[in-house]
Amino acid sequence: MLERMETGAGEIAGFRFDGDMTTKDYNGVLIPALEEAGGTHPVFRILFSIVNFHGWKPRGNWEALKDWPGMEKVDRITIVGGEKWEEWMNYLPGLFVGFVGIDVRYFSSEHLNDALDWLREPIAAEEAALKPG
Fold first, then answer.
1. Rounded CA gap, 28 and 33, in Å?
2. Residue 8: helix, strand or coil by DSSP?
3. Which of 35, 99, 119, 128 is the most exposed place for a label (fewest CB within 10 A)?
4. In sequence order, what DSSP letters do the residues of 69-131 get, joined into one string?
5. Does the domain made of 2-130 have the CATH classification 3.30.1380?
6. What's the pLDDT tens digit per position in 17-56?
């Protein structure tokens, strides 16, 4: 199950992930939220807070995310996981490989605030637009 998660920043699309990501989650929650963020921000970021991990299917919804046309607007993704996050990462060696030009970082659940701080750092494209002339 995937549900939106409040991040306190419009340029950060946050999600709480528990179990498997279904096609309904992908098409009904993830993609609409990403399209919303991409529609209002030239560059945006993604937070996945993973509570449980029940599996990953190659060429499934996670793989489809890599091909989503709006990914060119994403510059950072952070994955926050519980105590067993290192254990389930063994099952996902290539999950976020292939996101060209996207900085992906992993944080344990006790460092959720650090993950959000990293995501909230100024976006280079926005900083450049604010500089005079």
1. 9
2. coil
3. 128
4. GGGGGEEEEEEEE-TTHHHHHTT-TTTTTT-TT-EEEEEEGGGHHHHHHHHHSPPHHHHHHHS
5. no
6. 887 778 898 999 999 999 999 999 999 999 999 887 665 5
